[in-house]
């Protein structure tokens, strides 16, 4: 059966014209078929963003947020601010690395000035051991803070939160270490000032550890004894590290000086 598209009348399949109004049924069916076959699916207009552009943008945002956190730590060292887990670790390790590089530049410059350029190569092994010693010593002090706070407040503090807080309180060290590094590059009479800045940075880090050990509310036990526990654990860990790394660093430096004296 065919149905006329004009008047709606039904007729046999072999009829080509509507018996009621005369409409060509074949042409209507063809037009209908053409309309059906020429229907085009919409094309998606949202191209996929390249993965490389997204990753670059993400890194830029992360570095911008980190810089804002660092600037805020200079303005309000004890203020409350959110931070990603890696902020404190990156800050402390970056300061240690820059400090070690400054020592390398200063010693190479001093040895070269005394013994000539051929004897002024400060070995990579010594620098690595010094970096490792300072990083572990800093971690030991942070562990001391953790146990001290645990004694005082009877609550567990997340290690990343702890590191971020200490890095925030001692955030001014980033500026101090950069200035000390520049002094090491300049050389000459600036070495003494660089040493002074390094000592100041060390005291600021220790003070940050002491301050955060007792900083908080709802003390369960006296903060004085918690502070003693923190300092005691930190001192014990540092002494152990000195026993492990001290002789190795001493032998490396003596070997370096002996090699320089032969030139």
TrEMBL record:
It comes from the Bacteria. Residues 1-25 form the Putative zinc-ribbon domain. InterPro entries: DUF6574 (IPR046481), Znf_ribbon (IPR059113). Residues 36-55 are annotated as: Disordered. The chain crosses the membrane at residues 86-107, 127-148, 169-188, 194-212, 224-246. Keywords: Membrane, Transmembrane, Transmembrane helix. Residues 43-54 have a biased composition (Polar residues). This is Zinc ribbon domain-containing protein.
């Amino acid at each position: 059966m065919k149905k006329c598209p004009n008047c709606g009348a039904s007729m046999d399949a072999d009829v080509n014209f509507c018996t009621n109004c005369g409409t060509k049924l074949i042409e209507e069916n063809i037009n209908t078929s053409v309309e059906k076959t020429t229907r085009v699916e919409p094309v998606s207009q949202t191209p996929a963003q390249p993965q490389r552009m997204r990753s670059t943008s993400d890194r830029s945002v992360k570095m911008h947020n980190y810089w804002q956190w660092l600037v805020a730590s200079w303005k309000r060292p004890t203020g409350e601010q959110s931070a990603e887990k890696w902020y404190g670790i990156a800050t402390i390790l970056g300061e240690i690395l820059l400090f070690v590089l400054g020592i390398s530049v200063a010693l190479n410059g001093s040895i070269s000035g005394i013994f000539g350029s051929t004897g002024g190569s400060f070995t990579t092994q010594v620098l690595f051991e010094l970096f490792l010693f300072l990083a572990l010593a800093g971690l030991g002090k942070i562990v001391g803070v953790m146990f001290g706070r645990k004694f005082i407040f009877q609550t567990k503090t997340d290690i990343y939160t702890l590191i971020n807080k200490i890095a925030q309180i001692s955030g001014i060290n980033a500026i101090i270490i950069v200035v000390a590094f520049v002094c090491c590059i300049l050389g000459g009479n600036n070495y003494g000032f660089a040493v002074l800045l390094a000592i100041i940075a060390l005291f600021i880090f220790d003070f940050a550890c002491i301050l955060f050990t007792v900083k908080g509310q709802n003390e369960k036990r006296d903060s004085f004894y918690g502070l003693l526990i923190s300092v005691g654990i930190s001192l014990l860990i540092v002494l152990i590290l000195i026993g492990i790394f001290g002789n190795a660093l001493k032998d490396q430096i003596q070997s370096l000086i002996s090699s320089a004296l032969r030139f």
